[in-house]
Amino acid sequence: MRDRRIGIFKISFDAINDRPDEVRRMLAGVIVVRAEAMFVGNEISYVGICDQFEPVEPGASWPQYTAVVEGNAMSWRKLS
Length: 80
Known about the structure:
By secondary structure, this protein is an alpha+beta fold. It has one domain. 18% of the residues lie in helices and 45% in strands. A hairpin with a 2-residue loop joins strand 4 (65-70) and strand 5. It is globular and about 35 Å long.
């Protein structure tokens, strides 16, 4: 993969069921390369590529992000 702006994020099943339009906006700028249902945490864990993520050096751990939704604006905040 040439684009190294890769990160990990999670979306709860509740958000998907209760706020689907918000989830669609979150995923609009992301190329999802892996998604795994985590039934223990009641969420889906994603690995994705996004222009808003920081570049990651080859071999480095992928950082975790959380979506920040303010009105109609959506951005990503790095957690680790």
